[in-house]
Amino acid sequence: MPRLSAITPSGPAHLGNYLGAVRRWAREGAPGDLYFVSDLHGMTGAYHPQRLRHRTRELLALLVASGIDPDRVFVQSDLLPQLGPLTWVLECTCSFGEAARMTQFKEKSATRELVETPVRVGLFTYPVLMAADILLQGADEVPVGEDQAQHVELARALARRFNSTFGDALVVPRAVTPPAAARVRDLSDPARKMDKSAVDAAGVLFVMDEPDLLRRKVRRAVTDGLGRVEYRPAEQPGVANLLEVLAACTGRDVREIAEGFSSYGRLKEAVAEAVVEELRPVRERTRELLDDQPELDRVRRRGAELASERGAHRLSTVLRLAGVG
Ligand code: AQP
């Protein structure tokens, strides 16, 4: 049974997405695992259509360039003909109160109301679409962080309810905690995680940034006035973040690394070079794929075909049991 993971094109992929997710998927994924670019989830707030399309392609290329089996990768919107009806069936299985309990909606809608009105219904219902993503593919495990665990619980509840009300059709998924990975922080504000949709990109190292830009961003990383290279995340969050990045890129122990540096300047140089070398091959392969449109289109079509084949029988059973279609 597959595990299902996704990445949303809410911005260009950054070093955190790469070290914390994509690289791990490529290195540690089991042969049956599935990955998708969740472009429909990127529409729940204000967005720019061309930018969404471009970032979706770029993320698809990145996943394949990172070494994930292209047959296990797809773009969410390519499954709209199946996700649409399944989402509707699930929305008619989900109570309003259940959807309204999603804490991520409460948090995001509160923030968005301040900067952008109105808050979209899509932001409210997207956990049901996420349930459809999971249930269509028959994924039994969904590796997610704490912020998404409640959504997987919803998918689990909806699958159970559908099965017990209408008949067995859906695999009941569960959230699993992914193995601990680097949590990369914003270089300009180490109190925050590195974020695709950060308003200020100065502290975000994007996978597709040119080496010189990466170096400049690392050189400007916020540290502190203590002048001591030690791994003390609470007292020296900026320095600790740089050390963690270096550890994740080199596979070395973070405390051991700290002992080798006496100045922030030297540490930053080493971090910059390690990041440049870590990202260089994947950036170059992503670029090659983006430049080879027929090949990327072929990969995308095949991924979509395989993913929709995986879901076709399940969807028709669901519709039959639900009395429609
Ligand atoms: N800073 C990070 N460090 C380590 N891992 C990270 N991930 C995200 N940020 C970091 C991991 O990347 C995967 C895909 O994430 P997503 O598309 O669901 O985006 P997100 O978690 O909401 O965070 P982003 O990338 O910063 O995007 P936005 O701007 O949309 O919030 C996940 O496995 C995530 O853990």
TrEMBL record:
<dbReference type="Pfam" id="PF00579">
    <property type="entry name" value="tRNA-synt_1b"/>
</dbReference>
<keyword id="KW-0547">Nucleotide-binding</keyword>
<protein>
    <recommendedName>
        <fullName>Tryptophan--tRNA ligase</fullName>
        <ecNumber>6.1.1.2</ecNumber>
    </recommendedName>
</protein>
<comment type="similarity">
    <text>Belongs to the class-I aminoacyl-tRNA synthetase family.</text>
</comment>
<dbReference type="InterPro" id="IPR002305">
    <property type="entry name" value="aa-tRNA-synth_Ic"/>
</dbReference>
<dbReference type="InterPro" id="IPR050203">
    <property type="entry name" value="Trp-tRNA_synthetase"/>
</dbReference>
<dbReference type="GO" id="GO:0006436">
    <property type="term" value="P:tryptophanyl-tRNA aminoacylation"/>
</dbReference>
<keyword id="KW-0648">Protein biosynthesis</keyword>
<keyword id="KW-0067">ATP-binding</keyword>
<dbReference type="GO" id="GO:0004830">
    <property type="term" value="F:tryptophan-tRNA ligase activity"/>
</dbReference>
<dbReference type="InterPro" id="IPR002306">
    <property type="entry name" value="Trp-tRNA-ligase"/>
</dbReference>
<dbReference type="InterPro" id="IPR014729">
    <property type="entry name" value="Rossmann-like_a/b/a_fold"/>
</dbReference>
<dbReference type="GO" id="GO:0005829">
    <property type="term" value="C:cytosol"/>
</dbReference>
<keyword id="KW-0436">Ligase</keyword>
<keyword id="KW-0030">Aminoacyl-tRNA synthetase</keyword>
<dbReference type="GO" id="GO:0005524">
    <property type="term" value="F:ATP binding"/>
</dbReference>
